[in-house]
Amino acid sequence: MDAGGPSPKRRRPASPGVEEDGGCADYISALPDAVLGDIISLLPTKEGARTRILASRWRDLWLSAPLNLDCRELTAGRNEVRSDVVSRILSSHRGPGRRLYINTCIHWIPADTVEACLRSAALDNIEELDFINHLLEKPQRALILRFSPTLRVANIGGCNLSDVNFHELHLHFPLLKLLGLVNVMISESSLHSLIAGCPALECLLIDMCSGFRRIQINSPTIRCMAVREYGIPIESLLLEQIVIEKAPCLVRLLFERGSILQVTVLAAPKLETLGFISDKCRSGELSRLMIGSTVIQ
């Protein structure tokens, strides 16, 4: 070709992993370690660990990826969690924590294994906590609270938190968006302090909890709220009133009751869904709904 002629077109470089014989490109392995780590952390615990055998490129990724520790997948025999496997994971993992799932109502887990999980540096900066433990001792309750600065999702169940003074602790959950309390005993003042310490809270579930008669909501961010009480009317456990004092973003409020309940909505301009109100009565008085100054009985 003449020197003055048009220059030849440059060939586009081959895609990562494409072989000359037309083999398929391995685009996933070409991703940065940080992205692959996030992908691995979304997998079940066993599947995340198994990625180590895919190729030499993947060998150490799981150990440095955000840890998703789901104890449901680490059982042997009759739903007994293998403490040795849990200990090995916690001791070898170098990455930050992402999620911890423990449910002692379904799986038997030794108390020292539970405490080791809550204390482990491998779970520092954890973002999601699913913790249901009806055998929780007082020292372990304080360990749960150490995750408060980084939690985005928290489901806590089967715990007695009645002797934890959330008001005095000045606990703050700056990133928490979803909070679920299931079969938790907690005082009314502590419940309100806990909710007030969640400035980013969007969804709140209070299911079969006890220790309070009134729930008061004053939150600029909460969007969805659901409350379910005990089906058996035990006098000391009865929830009597829900008050939505100020919730400018609240869209959905669901509640279920077997006896008297008063629901008061003072300021919730975006509220679209509201239900249900029990038609059962006690002492001749039906459940009552108050919206502003309007009473519906």
From TrEMBL:
Residue ranges, annotated region (Disordered): 1-21
Which superkingdom, per the lineage? Eukaryota
Protein name (database record)? F-box/LRR-repeat protein 15/At3g58940/PEG3-like LRR domain-containing protein
Among InterPro entries, the record links this protein to:
F-box-like_dom_sf, F-box_dom-containing, LRR_dom_sf, LRR_FXL15/At3g58940/PEG3-like
Q: Where is the F-box/LRR-repeat protein 15/At3g58940/PEG3-like LRR domain?
A: 115-297
PANTHER family the UniProt entry points to:
FBD DOMAIN-CONTAINING PROTEIN, PTHR32141
Q: What is the lineage of its organism?
A: Eukaryota, Viridiplantae, Streptophyta, Embryophyta, Tracheophyta
TM segments?
A: none
